[in-house]
């Protein structure tokens, strides 16, 4: 029987990864103390095995898949759970954090007597028969990469040690999510000046692939905007606060929060972005 993995606070990505592993015969443990009803529902739908927090330490691997602002908090929780455990799970950080944050998480984990693996996830949650995202892991985690590959997920090791996978995530998200957020900013600005339809027509003529990407991305980013804000700040830190281009991502973090506030309030910007594909 395959050794169990542990995964806490199953959001959309974590629950989907857990479901794929369970479907391929890997027991996935989770603990739900203090978690929301939606986390519980996702865990049940994914077939995760709900256990007491202490029982998570029976797992061989512990996957940390949480919003970036919660990555350090979960690492500290895990460190507390390690007390008195002879062989704690290997802590695998798959979050959207910059390399410096990853090193800080590593220090917390190793001080608790556990092994740390740096990683990241690129792509969307696995769904149906689709391959799903690719999980990148530091090159000392070949055993885990092989396990994931054998049980329904795509995984690769990455040379460079701790920080390389985090750097890859920052650069990838900076382009992928950055394009979506810049597109949202320009769509809103154009619409404020009655040029929304002209912008769409121009993009369709000169950049049809980009237009198709924005048609999907602009409505889709709205419910994610608040979660994306800390990730934009992690990207700014990754670039280096002394570099002028880091200010782009600091501004995009504020843009994310403004979009999230609008969605929770009057919804004027949200209405424009939802309507963009139909202009």
How would you describe the overall organization of this protein?
An 8-stranded mixed sheet has the order 3-2-1-4-5-6-7-8, sandwiched between helices. It is built from 11 helices and 8 strands. The protein has 279 residues and is of the alpha/beta class. 43% of the residues are buried. Keywords: Oxidoreductase. Residues 10-123 form the 6-phosphogluconate dehydrogenase NADP-binding domain. This is NAD(P)-dependent oxidoreductase.
As laid out across the biggest beta sheet, the strand order is 3-2-1-4-5-6-7-8
> If you compute it from the alpha carbons, what radius of gyration comes out, rounded to the nearest whole angstrom?
20 Å
- The helix/strand class is alpha/beta
Percent in helix: 40-55%
Shape: globular
- Would you report the number of β strands? 8
Give me the strand/helix succession. EHEHEEHEHEEHEHHHHHH
**What is the mean predicted local confidence, pLDDT?**
94
Largest beta sheet, briefly? 8 strands, mixed
User: What portion of residues belong to β-strands?
Assistant: 5-15%
Unreliable spans are: none
Q: Tally the helices.
A: 11
In whole angstroms, the N-to-C terminal distance is 54 Å
Give the gist of this structure.
This protein has 279 residues and is of the alpha/beta class. It has helices at residues 12-23, 37-46, 71-81, 99-111, 142-150, 164-192, 196-206, 208-221, 225-239, 246-264, 268-275; strands spanning 5-7, 28-30, 49-50, 61-64, 90-93, 116-122, 134-138, 154-158. It holds the Pfam family NAD_binding_2.
Task: Tell me the layout of helices and strands.
Blueprint: E1 5-7, H1 12-23, E2 28-30, H2 37-46, E3 49-50, E4 61-64, H3 71-81, E5 90-93, H4 99-111, E6 116-122, E7 134-138, H5 142-150, E8 154-158, H6 164-192, H7 196-206, H8 208-221, H9 225-239, H10 246-264, H11 268-275
Parallel strand pairs: 1-2, 1-4, 2-3, 4-5, 5-6, 7-8
Antiparallel strand pairs: 6-7
